[in-house]
Structure to design on (497 residues):
């Protein structure tokens, strides 16, 4: 290129830069491109491909923006994005992002989370999400329930409890393999066992609620008005029972009892109580109610419009109980109006009062096969103090009688009928794949020839949390461990089971 060509090019560039508007610049570009020969087009295309129009928006964002983004990511997604670049790893591994993610899953506010602590928590959470236990515990000291009474057994915080001879409660520590026994002074007949982190509770046939401190063995009891109740839960050193009998507090009420103070309180609640959530840290409780707002449409036709309402109650003072707030939970399966929602109380009781189960039926049509019923499960997480709904459609084929356990925030384990074989599946509504199998947790039960009747064991029960998941049937008790503390001399790696 000689000097005259260089001078001409500079004149063209100068004139182009003086064009007054974007439209004029685009018109000049288009006319120049139209003058190009084929080989010049190829050179222009190579030049365009060398120009990147991407920007690292996350890498250039302040930590506060990264925190907002991390709130919408799961732990697995967060781990994948940390590996994109060093800048992303530094930003998404910062104390601010780490603390926000930890608070979102655990409800712990204002605490510093070390990197090792967060990694340990995230690994265990991912194992729960994928159904990948670290071990399976073989302990012959865990008996199956007698006469299929699943109300007489419970699990909490690494302890498994069951009723023996109707008079003694046996509490087995799965970590230490230690056994403790509790009974009343007169060896009263007991029923409906509940476990918390700190105590074991049972109802006697004489309508007393008995509680024992797991650490000290101290015993206390209080009278209850009836043996029939809607809900029965224990958390920390507190107990709550929901009744539907008339009282001073109202038609439906909760007896709230604190073992530390030995004081019981009556709390009036809204009708159709289905679930109680105890929050011992904030001294409050949450209740879930099924609201029936049936309305009459044209031609006098009655249409169903049921809703689930959460009400939070404060128990800080000793006066009247205050309702802090209430809100509606959106049912996950109701795609249209006039669905009928029924509470399955017997299934809810089998789950030790930690969840509520509903049957959702669409409007009746002329063909019976076109009216499949759905199952909705409401769970309460005491760490985050929130309710979560899981929807099980007919294609998810949950095993009947329903068998499920809420093991962590937004995670529900349930037994699915896989063409006649009971298998464990996981429900996580917040995940893109909301239902998936726990392939590493094989119950070891044979497949039946028919999908309707299962003769090997007619009933199952699932119990569990972040540390252990138990599957109990009429023949044995299977235990899978997810935490590092679950590994003991009776544990074998799941890869060999």
């Amino acid at each position: 290129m000689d000097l005259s060509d260089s001078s001409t090019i500079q004149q063209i560039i100068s004139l182009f830069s003086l064009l007054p508007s974007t439209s004029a610049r685009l018109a000049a570009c288009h006319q120049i491109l139209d003058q190009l020969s084929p080989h010049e087009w190829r050179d222009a295309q190579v030049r365009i491909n060398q120009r990147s129009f991407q920007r690292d928006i996350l890498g250039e964002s302040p930590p506060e923006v990264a925190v907002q983004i991390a709130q919408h990511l799961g732990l697995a997604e967060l781990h994948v994005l940390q590996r994109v670049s060093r800048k992303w790893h530094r930003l998404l591994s910062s104390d601010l992002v780490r603390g926000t993610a930890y608070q979102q899953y655990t409800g712990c506010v204002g605490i510093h989370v070390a990197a090792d602590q967060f990694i340990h928590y995230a690994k265990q959470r991912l194992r729960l999400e994928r159904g990948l236990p670290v071990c399976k515990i073989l302990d012959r000291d865990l008996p199956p329930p007698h006469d299929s009474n699943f109300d007489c057994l419970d699990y909490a915080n690494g302890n498994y409890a069951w009723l023996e001879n109707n008079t003694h409660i046996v509490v087995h520590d799965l970590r230490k393999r230690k056994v403790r026994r509790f009974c009343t002074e007169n060896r009263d007949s007991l029923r409906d066992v509940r476990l918390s982190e700190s105590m074991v509770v049972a109802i006697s046939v004489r309508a007393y609620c008995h509680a024992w401190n797991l650490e000290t063995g101290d015993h206390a009891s209080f009278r209850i008005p009836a043996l029939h109740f809607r809900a029965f839960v224990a958390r920390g050193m507190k107990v709550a029972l929901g009744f539907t009998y008339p009282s001073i507090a109202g038609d439906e009420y909760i007896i709230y009892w604190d073992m530390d103070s030995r004081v019981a309180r009556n709390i009036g609640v809204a009708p159709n109580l289905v679930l109680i959530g105890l929050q011992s840290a904030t001294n409050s409780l949450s209740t879930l109610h099924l609201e029936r707002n049936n309305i009459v449409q044209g031609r006098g036709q009655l249409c169903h419009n049921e809703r689930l309402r959460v009400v939070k109650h404060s128990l800080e003072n000793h006066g009247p109980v205050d309702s802090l707030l209430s809100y509606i939970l959106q049912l996950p399966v109701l795609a249209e109006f006039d669905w009928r929602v029924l509470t399955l109380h017997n299934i809810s009781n089998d789950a030790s009062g930690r969840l509520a189960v509903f049957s959702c039926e669409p409007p009746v049509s002329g063909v019976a096969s076109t009216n499949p019923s759905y199952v909705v499960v409401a769970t309460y997480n005491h760490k985050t103090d929130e309710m979560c709904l899981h929807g099980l459609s007919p294609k998810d084929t949950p095993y009947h009688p329903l068998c499920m356990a809420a093991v962590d925030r937004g995670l529900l384990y349930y037994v699915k009928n896989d063409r006649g074989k009971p298998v464990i599946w996981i429900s996580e509504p917040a995940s893109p794949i909301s239902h998936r199998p726990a392939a590493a947790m094989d119950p070891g039960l044979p497949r039946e020839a028919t999908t309707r009747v299962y003769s090997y064991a007619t009933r199952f029960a699932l119990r569990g949390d972040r540390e252990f998941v138990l599957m109990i049937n009429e023949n044995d008790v299977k235990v899978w461990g997810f935490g590092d503390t679950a590994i003991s001399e009776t544990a074998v790696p799941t890869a060999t089971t």
Observations:
- The mean pLDDT is 85.
